[in-house]
Amino acid sequence: MTAINPVTDLTIEGDVAVITLNSPPVNALSAPVRDGLYEGFKAAIANDAVKAIVLICDGRTFIAGADISEFGKERKGADLPAVQDMMENSPKPVVAAIHGTALGGGFEVALTAHYRVAVPSAKVGLPEVKLGLLPGAGGTQRLPRLVGPEVALNMVTSGDFVGAAAANKSGLVDELVDEGKLRDGAIAFARKLVAEGRPLKKVRDLQDKVEAARGKPAIFADFRKANARRFRGFEAPEANIKCIEAAVNLPFDEGMKAERDLFLGLVNGTQSAAQRYIFFAERQAAKIPDVPDSTPVLPIKKVGVIGAGTMGGGISMNFANVGIPVTIVEMQPAALERGLGVIRKNYENTAKKGRLRQEDVETRMGLLTGSLELEKLADCDLIIEAVYENMAIKKEVFAKLDAIAKPGAILASNTSYLDVNEIAAATKRPEWVIGTHFFSPANVMRLLEVVRGDKTSKEVIATLMQLSKKIGKVAVLVGVCHGFVGNRMLAQRQREANKLVLEGAMPWDVDRVLYDFGMPMGPFAMSDLAGLDIGWSKETSSSSTIREVLCEMDRRGQKNGKGFYDYDENRNAKPSAEVEKVILDFAAKKGINRRTISDEEIIERCIYPMINEGAKILEEGKAIRASDIDIVWINGYGWPVYHGGPMFYGDVIGADKVLAKMREFERTMGDDFKPSALLEKVAAEGKKLHQL
Ligand code: 3H9
């Protein structure tokens, strides 16, 4: 064995050279890896004893792509195209041996090998689109030559991985070898190639699949149309489609040039910078400075959930989905039955869509036990309370739990804004109490705000952070404050949206601007969806907000076909003349001189105070880092990932510009816009908000 460099070995096994990469964690194509590949292939090709070359990786995976942290920095080391040229033009067959995930540039390297073998558990994919990119190492030109443009379009615009069996069937992988025997299997395959005198198959030379699609622009037009909604706002999907079009219509080298140009456009753009930042931010969120990885984690073998409503039901599903039994407690038999029924219906709908097997529906339902007695939670390792959002009720529940739960059980509250310390104080074991703020629908939304009380123990935090990963959530640790991170910032936007409607905009103006910004829906459409009458009662209604007036008129939202909008039978919204009149009358009564409000002002008024609130949250230490705030907004509220979250967006605008606007609004509209000291500091020092 020869060490080519610290991350690359070359072993000559008789007539086969094996180049082994070992660059943890994922063998990304960093400068040393590219250097190792270049020198390794050069040496193997130059060695006369070598008849075939195998490229394989140590550790958990084959090359998982370019080193994302290298983008935007000065490039060092060998050029990837030079490595790929050498592989593809090697006079000896090159075999890529794949395990783990061959992704992005890693899979593109494999596509320049003459053959690919894989173990059954391997996956391949071109996920660049998820980073706002396109496969920039020939992937968009080689892939359609192997599998045709239709499959290629789906793969590059979804970024989804393909399992080894399917990859073998579609021709992405030439042969499957036994699990755990990749190295031997790949060497045997290479020897077979030599023995049979098989040709050096260069994917770039394959023509039939792209030729068949030439002169058929409808393939692309139809694909764009069918996916327009999914691609809304994103630049990368269109650039990916253009590359596949180029593969079909242009000779290979010209297609490569088109790919290069489009790649450079994306990699230097703001969207990809935002998406790459979010990739790392998501992984960073799991790291808690004072709760090291070595912190003991408590086993969670049984969960209790109090409340079988929408939230309680969704929360319970998360655990049943991963095989953890759940006891769900309700006060009334009817409510319990209804709750369990809704869960079953949810599972059955998923099964109908082909995303769950019927027997899994039964297995999961079998893990859920309903009960009317809190005492049944005595043996649970984690109990999550999801009852009505009312401090007195929550305290009562926690006092009872304190008496019932076994020692060492974690007691969690699914509150969305209440003081977790006050809840914890209702027990004699505040160190075991924590907040788990799930987002609705709780079985779907990826975000979990884990709320750390003053006394919550590190073990409890570590356990919740790890458990959330197991149930497929992105957890963000936040501190106790009204509304935590997400709802606290949302309140800023809601306040301004309401004010804008009084000052001159209509709800549909505000919604349109925020939708065009990339949010899934605006605040008024969201209120209609949730129901305008949440927390409203006829008896106490005082006609003091537009929302109250609408409730008094029985405009309760989507559920009864009228809210801020009028809805048709298919729940399509259209602006309501009645609501317009309510707003105009309301403003007139308040003596407000309505004015024209620009789209720009809507963005500034709704979003800059959120950024400012984010800075306050950091100032108060309620979030560990700015990127955690961005993760909250992307995973909990549908903030468009290409804008990178509110804090990242603040830097795209410029902290100084956000500050200047806040000051101007403060002068003209008062204290709601008071800049945070941290925003002032960042702007003065020319720092970046998202790096705080
Ligand atoms: C590309 O290839 C462009 C080319 O087309 C063009 C070239 C010219 N780079 O996710 P995990 C780190 S674009 C740097 O927790 P898992 C990650 O930050 C790239 N670092 O593990 C983490 O670090 P830490 C296309 C990377 O087992 C650690 O590895 N490829 C990279 O849950 C473990 O990661 C992709 O988009 C990277 N490429 O999942 C694949 N990948 O421990 C991106 C990972 O310090 N990667 N790290 O927090 C993934 O999807 C997952 O990481 C993977 C493993 C499925 C591989």
Describe this entry's structure for a reader:
- The structure is a single chain.
- The chain is α/β, with parallel strands linked by helices.
- The chain has four domains: 2-267, Alpha-Beta Complex (2-enoyl-CoA Hydratase, Chain A, domain 1); 303-482, Rossmann fold (3-Layer(aba) Sandwich), CATH 3.40.50; 505-589, Orthogonal Bundle (N-(1-d-carboxylethyl)-l-norvaline Dehydrogenase, domain 2); 599-691, N-(1-d-carboxylethyl)-l-norvaline Dehydrogenase, domain 2, CATH 1.10.1040.
- The chain has 28 helices and 20 strands.
- It has an eight-stranded mixed beta sheet with strand order 13-12-11-14-15-16-17-18, with helices on both faces. A seven-stranded mixed beta sheet has the order 1-2-3-4-5-7-10, with helices on both faces. A three-stranded mixed beta sheet has the order 6-8-9.
- Strand 17 (447-452), helix 18 and strand 18 (474-479) form a beta-alpha-beta unit.
- Helix 24 packs across helix 26 (646-653), helix 24 (599-619) crosses helix 27 (655-669) and helix 27 crosses helix 28.
- The structure holds (S)-3-Hydroxyhexanoyl-CoA.
- Residues 25-26, 28, 61, 64-69, 80, 101, 103-105, 108, 127-128, 131, 133, 135-137, 139, 280, 283 line the site of (S)-3-Hydroxyhexanoyl-CoA.
- (S)-3-Hydroxyhexanoyl-CoA (3H9) binds at residues 25-26, 28, 61, 64-69, 80, 101, 103-105, 108, 127-128, 131, 133, 135-137, 139, 280, 283.
- GO terms for molecular function: (3S)-3-hydroxyacyl-CoA dehydrogenase (NAD+) activity; enoyl-CoA hydratase activity; isomerase activity; NAD+ binding.
